[in-house]
Structures are given as structure tokens and as C-alpha cells.
Amino acid sequence: MEHRTLGRTGRDVSVVGLGTWQLGADWGEVSSEDAAAVLEAAVESGVTFLDTADVYGDGRSEQTIAAFRRAHPGLDLTVATKMGRRLDQVPENYVMEHFRAWTDRSRRNLDVDTLDLVQLHCPPTAVVEDDAVYDALDTLVDEGVLAAYGVSVETCDQALAAIARPNVASVQIILNAFRLKPLDAVLPAAREAGVGIIARVPLASGLLSGRYTRETTFADDDHRTYNRHGEAFDVGETFSGVDFEVGVQAAQEFAALLPEGVTPAQAALAWVVAQDGVSTVIPGARNPEQARGNAAAADVVLDDEVLAGVRRIYDEHLRASVHPRW
Ligand SMILES: NC(=O)c1ccc[n+]([C@@H]2O[C@H](COP(=O)([O-])OP(=O)(O)OC[C@H]3O[C@@H](n4cnc5c(N)ncnc54)[C@H](OP(=O)(O)O)[C@@H]3O)[C@@H](O)[C@H]2O)c1
């Protein structure tokens, strides 16, 4: 598996990582055995970068990763977690006292003294622009609580504000064949600054796998049911903010572009990997088969016809609703 440097962390990570939101909650039930098997399959396939958060399953995702590491001592993994969503997302809550409490809890959950990378978990814009927030995070780095910090953002403007900060190591942003805006300014700015880009929601919550039809339904406790219109959190996190029926149609057109033998999910990941400035892409996987298939996407090369087709599909179906919003 190809490795790239994750921005100012200076760490080498696999170009295909693993998102572990699914190993916590919000995607219907995933058993502990299945969660462990997903990690096992991903790491066996060459994945060395895991993305988690303190709120995924209220710590269950972090604890699952810690148990996996204990069972496989000596593995060279980079684990990025996130903080900031255990309280209301108002600027007053992004202060040192809370940063300490949150990072101490993640250190316990992940069973480490120093966290590899902690990302602010989609905070309000005022937080992304607040000098005091970065001063506090610099202090935690100086103290050895974290090795590096980054920001997970919703919008391109937030990404640009974070990239402009001298010690932000990485920015996590939604980037996929249905979300092209980061290509305009965010990726060039990140490359220029040496900030890592962690591309999340690369399959548009599964839409780009081409498996869903207009009739597909999801469990009641799956965000693809309960956040379909942004009822619980930013609607951009669910199907990339694309209307489900429009997305099903666009995904069918995407699948039709592909040569024999390449699955739509792999092509969607290969498309992200091909974007200059991306450090790692973090598909979520619900079972070992998905995890293995996603890791194998690192070896898929797409031809110009597919790349041009992605632009056409985006312009025809998605640009008007997506581009102005995020
Ligand atoms: N605010 C934030 O910072 C934030 C927000 C969202 C996500 N994230 C991170 O980004 C990661 C990735 O995003 P995501 O999980 O939301 O969305 P995603 O990776 O775009 O989609 C994941 C879904 O795609 C389907 N899938 C995965 N691999 C597949 C394969 N090989 N073939 C067919 N279908 C496949 C599965 O759907 P089924 O469940 O239908 O099988 C899976 O649940 C998360 O796990 C999390 O770590 C961060």
C-alpha cells in the first residue's frame, strides 16, 4: 500500500485509512466481534491510519482500537481522534479545561500517554478562527498530551482558516466524487502550507458504492434515516448532503463509467487518492469484506474518461445544491 506524509505530523500513513465511526454507533448495530474483525481486515490489508472520535459510541470506537492494539503489540499505527462534541458546540466550551478533560478521556480510552493526532470535531467557525484555541492546543503539545493537532471542518472556508494557522498539522474535510469544491482552493492551499488532508465520507455514506436504489431503507438508528434532512447534525455528513434520489441516479451514472472488474466503491476511493494534496482517505467499513475491498482501491488507477465523467455528473446533478453550501 502506498504511504504519504500526513502533513505537519511528519508521519507516514497508508493512503487508504479506515474511518471507525461505524465501530461505535449511528450506523445501526455493529457487534464487538464485527468491529474487531473490521480492524483486523483493514490492518492486514496494509491500513496504518485509523480515524476515530471521542463521541463515536461514546468512546466505544476508541476502546475497540485500544483493545486491537493491545492484542497486536508492535504495530505501527497512527490513530487520529477528535474532540469537542461532548458538550454543546458553542465557542465558550472550547477552552483549556475542557480540552484537558476530553484529551485525558481519549488517552484513557485509547490507552496511550500521548495522542498521535487530535482534531477539533467540526467546531463553529468562531472556534476555527480563535487564537486562544490554538494557544491551548500548542500548550497540550508542549506538555506531551498530544503529538499533533488538526481540525475537522464542514466548509472550505473553515478549512482555509485552519490551514493558515502555523501549527495545524492536518485538516479533515468531505471530499468525494459528489463533493468537488475542496479541489478549487483547499487542496492547493494545503499543499502549499504542507498541511495534511484527511478526506472523509469518500463514499458519500455508501451512495457511491452504487448498491442503493430509490427503495433502499436504513435502520432507525442509522443516521441515513434519522439525519436525512440534517435533523441531528450537519446534513452534509449524510450522503454528502446530496438528496438521496438524486444521489442514487448520479451513482448509477458513475458506475456506468467504470471498466469491468473495478467496483464503484473502489473507483470512488481511487478518485480521492488521485487528487493532488490528499494525504489519506478514510472510508468507513461495516464488515471485513468492505475493509479489504477499500484497502485494495489504493492500487486502482482511473483513466481520463472516468475523471472527466465525474466532473460531468457533478456539474449536471450536484453542483447547484452542493457547491454554494460547503
Ligand atoms: N465530522 C467528522 O469529522 C466526521 C463526519 C463523518 C465521518 N467522519 C469520519 O469519516 C469516516 C468515513 O465517512 P463515513 O463512514 O461517514 O462515510 P463513507 O466512508 O462515505 O461511507 C461508509 C459506508 O459506505 C459503505 N461501504 C464502505 N465500504 C464499502 C465497500 N467496499 N463496498 C460497498 N459499500 C461500502 C458502507 O455502507 P453500508 O453501511 O450500507 O454497508 C459504509 O457504512 C467515518 O468512519 C469517520 O471516521 C468524520
Tell me what you see in this structure.
The chain is an alpha/beta fold and 326 residues long. The chain is 39% helix and 12% strand. The protein is built from 12 helices and 10 strands. The chain has helices at residues 32-44, 60-71, 96-110, 125-128, 131-143, 156-163, 186-193, 223-226, 244-256, 264-273, 288-296, 304-322, and strands at 3-5, 12-14, 18-19, 49-51, 78-83, 117-121, 149-152, 168-174, 196-200, 280-281. It has an 8-stranded parallel β-sheet, covered by helices on one side. It has a two-stranded antiparallel ribbon with strand order 1-2. The radius of gyration is 18 Å and the shape is globular. The structure holds NADP nicotinamide-adenine-dinucleotide phosphate.
Parts with pLDDT < 50 across at least 5 consecutive residues: none
Strand content: 5-15%
What is the CATH-assigned architecture?
Answer: Alpha-Beta Barrel
Query: What's the number of domains?
Result: 1
Order of helices and strands: EEEHEHEHEHHEHEHEHHHEHH
Shape by Cα distribution? globular
